[in-house]
Amino acid sequence: MMQSVEEFAPDIVFCPYLKKYLPKEIFLKTPTFILHPGIRGDRGHNSLDHAIREEKKEWGVVILRANEELDGGDVYAEVRFLMRGTYKASIYRNEVARAASKALKELLANLADKNFKPTPQLKSQMHHYLSQQDRAIDWEKETTKEIIKKIYMSDSYPGVKDEFLGLECYLFGAWQEESLRGEPKEIIAKRDGAICVGTVDGALWISHMQEVGRFKLPSTYALKERIKGVKEMRIPLISEVGDITFHEISSKVIGDVGYLYFNFHNGAMHSEQCIRLKYAFEHLKESCKVIVLMGGEDFFSNGIHLNILQDSKKHGEDGWSNINAMNDVVKSILFADEVITIASLHRNAGAGGVFLALSCDHVVAQEGVVLNPHYRTLGLSGSEYHTFSLARRVGEEKAGELLNECLPISANRALKIGVIDKVFEYNDYFKSLNEFAQKLCEDEDVYSDFLYEKEDYISQNSSQIEQKKEEELRVMYREFWEEDSSFHKLRYDFVYKVCSLQTPERLKRHKCRGKVSKDSGITSDIVIKH
């Protein structure tokens, strides 16, 4: 950290996600500010965990001036938000992320204001670090609601430590079950990688487990042969939005517009999920004129499922299966000439998930969304027809730049360079999205003309489009199957969360010195680092 700060020589240091203690050599030399995911007076680790545990209705973030006292510095910005009844990672990725962005703007404005005086931090007692003893589930006494809250407050780290059928593991992903019943801690059913477990007053689904010393997997993948004979409790391919049970794919139809949700954990899509999504899309287009791909609660999509590939004993085979299944989804959408398709990027997307979105006729995004339209940091060249869809939108030169520089881009930047078509404001996003979708099918002549032109374009270009996909796969074949492929090492590091020891060179190359925009209220030169 000290080396990076010395090399970069910033005017200020901002720490949005500090996981290690900051060396005093940094904050004594350079004004340093720390984002804390709690309100003024909240001090210590596990801030959001405690907020969920105590069922806070309102919470917030503060930006503190770093000093030698943990969370004891003066407050330079504070933003509040209402809490949702959901798991910690979702609150962090949504409410906390938006509040942090707003607080950062407030911080910069306050630093530019000569009359600003920071607010002293309240010297309240520091809350205790939540141990696994605090998080442990008493299956014989605790209700479904109490168990779900413990899993919610422990997601996505550290999880709730438990033991199932001799497997010592951490639990993640809790879903309430409305109909099934069983004895406390009895595994009564399985579905799409999740297991249904009985409680004293009902049942719940646990979608993911992490064996001690390994990495997170769908529960049935972690338990493997231990659950042989457990009943597969199937449900319709597409659930109705709001069903109280575990489901990954659901839909909602408004007029002639169908909204297709695919809530895959962390946006990762393994082969079987891709197959189900393809058939869900095929089914929905039979009754709708416009289909909107909605993605999940926390991500639109992040492409292929690296954890399952790491768990596989046949990395090449399963990787090849996964990318081909992903391509089949994209092909169904790309060549769907009987409906208009829209990708709704109201959550972040990465790698193949970005190019899944670009297979649609229209791509719209919510302000604040971040896209990572590249693969190379994992040793992959990628497929999902990206050599066609990205170049069609931004041209060959810009497409190569995005794929090789491996930098994130904001929704507004994506709009400016042509990656996406529209950006809607956060507050009215779903209203704006529905109005946009409904308008596409209001005028029957305009709608028919669009589909006619689309059909004609596909008819004339399908062979060239397929050829591009085949060229992508020729390159990817080596990346999946050859033992010396960098993908295997990079995938391992990603899955086991091996942290970089220094700032990646690609980020160091993309620093620039410039002016902050006028609307921020700052006129002095600052260093901007992507």
Q: How would you describe the overall organization of this protein?
A:
Residues 130-216 form the Formyl transferase C-terminal domain. This protein has 530 residues and is of the alpha/beta class. It has 3 domains: 1-112, Rossmann fold, CATH 3.40.50; 135-227, Methionyl-tRNA Fmet Formyltransferase, Chain A, domain 2 (Roll); 239-481, 2-enoyl-CoA Hydratase, Chain A, domain 1, CATH 3.90.226. Helix content is 38%, strand content 22%. The protein has a 7-stranded mixed β-sheet with strand order 11-12-13-14-16-18-21, sandwiched between helices. Helix 3 runs antiparallel to helix 6 and helix 8 runs parallel beside helix 10. The longest helix is centred in the last third of the chain and has 38 residues, at 444-481. The radius of gyration is 24 Å and the shape is globular.
Number of strands: 23
Radius of gyration: 24 Å
Q: Tell me the count of domains.
A: 3
The largest sheet has its strands arranged as: 11-12-13-14-16-18-21
Q: Pairing-aware structural class of the strands and helices?
A: alpha/beta
Helical content stands at 25-40%
Give me the CATH superfamily of the largest domain: 2-enoyl-CoA Hydratase, Chain A, domain 1
CATH architecture of the largest domain: Alpha-Beta Complex
Class of the largest domain, according to the CATH hierarchy? Alpha Beta
Organism: Sulfurimonas hongkongensis
GO molecular function: catalytic activity
Domain Formyl transferase N-terminal: 2-106
Domain Formyl transferase C-terminal: 130-216
